């Protein structure tokens, strides 16, 4: 019976696996909720970070402002609110809601006129949220004001300010919106891949270890079916749910892009409808590979709970691997990396998210490599099903 390519029971087997997969409301809701959760969280975090950095105002209390009246006016500007305070301790002022306290000594005006570089005392609470940002903002304002004063003093004495600046560093950013988007959206491909694992987790455990404990797998193996068709049917059913989760995540992410402040981050939304469809097609071979690997691991586990534990650990592995590769600064742009599952899909998704093109030839080669691994895993699973020890694992 194993030598036959297809059996008449293949179509009913597929129907049975798909019905059991899509009737499992718990697994279906898990796939839908996680698929929609991370795009919403990503959009919320992006909006929060941009709003915090662009709209928050730094409150500065200026002690001893009467010693330098012009300093208070020069420091005022966008996102920096300066208030002259006649009295009060720096600690108390910080507790009253000020982000920073700048204190001028009583001899500031005299030392300033005598070119003695009087000190300025800056008080801050480093444990407070946003204290570092407020300090950096004030330091930039003070540095620019200091350069202006130095230039004016040199000019008043007939000295060219250029003598103290032998060169001028002009920073010119040659990055494109696509390259900036690739940096900021680098985590999105990993999360989309993680969605495949999470969305198909419950179904893969139930259709393998679950059926073995319910003894329905033994009944299925007694049917005149090639073992590889049993594994293939289960793989297609599980992969369909994981693929649905990834498609929902992609659709939600693209739908939320107009709400996200991408323009403030220097990103132009370049993802088109064709790009969305391409991302979905690129994830299909990987969805099959993830499904068959999860099924095989669940089959070799000793129990249903053991299978859940193993696959829960497995779903963290791909994101960890991709993070390690990024942290190690490994050059993944080499074409041969596009033959490696997970890494190839990450690079393709990253390019499509920001509107860049991908090589059709390498995409076909990488997808074919992924499908070959799926076929090899199905063949390995078919041999495992023929072992009697498999049913005795429980």
In short:
With 394 residues, the protein is mainly alpha-helical. It contains 16 helices and four strands.
Per-chain topology:
Elements lengths: L9 H14 L1 H31 L2 E6 L5 H7 L4 E6 L4 H6 L4 E4 L4 H6 L7 E4 L6 H26 L20 H8 L2 H27 L2 H6 L5 H30 L16 H28 L3 H11 L2 H11 L15 H11 L6 H26 L2 H4 L3
Parallel strand pairs: 1-2, 1-3
Antiparallel strand pairs: 3-4
Helix pairs in contact: 1-10, 2-8, 2-10, 8-10, 8-11, 8-12, 8-13, 8-14, 10-11, 10-15, 11-12, 11-14, 11-15
How would you explain this protein's 3D organization?
With 394 residues, the chain is mainly alpha-helical. It has helices at 10-23, 25-55, 69-75, 90-95, 108-113, 131-156, 177-184, 187-213, 216-221, 227-256, 273-300, 304-314, 317-327, 343-353, 360-385, 388-391; strands spanning 58-63, 80-85, 100-103, 121-124. It folds into two domains: 10-50 and 178-391, no CATH class; 57-167, D-Maltodextrin-Binding Protein, domain 2 (3-Layer(aba) Sandwich), CATH 3.40.190. Helix content is 64%, strand content 5%. Strands 2-1-3-4 form a four-stranded mixed sheet. Helix 1 (10-23) crosses helix 10 (227-256) and helix 2 (25-55) runs parallel beside helix 10 (227-256). The radius of gyration is 31 Å and the shape is elongated.
């Amino acid at each position: 019976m194993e030598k036959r390519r297809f059996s008449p029971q293949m179509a009913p087997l597929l129907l049975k696996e798909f019905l059991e997969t899509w009737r499992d409301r718990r697994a279906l809701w898990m796939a839908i909720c996680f698929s929609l959760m991370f795009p919403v969280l990503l959009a919320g975090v992006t909006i929060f970070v941009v709003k915090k950095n662009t709209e928050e105002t730094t409150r500065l209390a200026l002690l001893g402002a009467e010693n330098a009246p012009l300093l208070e006016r020069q420091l005022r500007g966008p996102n920096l609110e300066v208030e002259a305070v006649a009295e009060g301790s720096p600690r108390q002022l910080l507790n009253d809601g000020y982000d920073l306290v700048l204190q001028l000594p009583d001899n500031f005006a005299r030392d300033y006129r005598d070119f003695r570089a009087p000190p300025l005392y800056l008080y801050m609470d480093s444990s407070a949220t946003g204290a570092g940002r407020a300090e950096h903002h004030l330091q930039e304002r003070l540095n620019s004001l200091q350069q202006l004063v130095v230039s004016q003093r040199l000019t008043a004495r007939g000295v060219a300010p250029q003598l103290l600046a032998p060169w001028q560093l002009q920073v010119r950013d040659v990055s494109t919106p696509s390259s900036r988007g690739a940096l900021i959206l680098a985590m999105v491909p990993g999360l989309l891949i993680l969605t495949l694992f999470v969305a198909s987790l419950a179904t893969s455990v139930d259709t393998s270890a679950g059926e073995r404990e319910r003894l329905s797998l033994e009944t299925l193996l007694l049917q005149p079916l090639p073992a590889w068709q049993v594994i293939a049917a289960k793989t297609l059913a599980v992969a369909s749910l994981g693929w649905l989760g990834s498609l929902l995540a992609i659709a939600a992410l693209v739908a939320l892009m107009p709400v996200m402040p991408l323009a403030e981050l220097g990103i132009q939304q370049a993802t088109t409808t064709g790009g969305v469809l391409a991302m979905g097609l690129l994830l299909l071979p990987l969805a099959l590979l993830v499904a068959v690997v999860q099924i095989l691991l669940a089959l070799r586990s000793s129990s249903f709970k053991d299978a859940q534990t193993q696959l829960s650990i497995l779903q963290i592995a791909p994101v960890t691997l991709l993070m390690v590769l990024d942290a190690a600064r490994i050059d993944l742009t080499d074409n041969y990396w596009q033959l490696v599952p997970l890494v190839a899909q990450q690079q393709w998704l990253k390019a499509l998210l920001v509107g860049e093109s991908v090589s059709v030839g390498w995409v076909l080669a990488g997808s074919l490599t992924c499908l070959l691994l799926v076929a090899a895993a199905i063949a390995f699973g078919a041999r495992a099903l023929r072992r009697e020890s498999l049913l005795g694992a429980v």
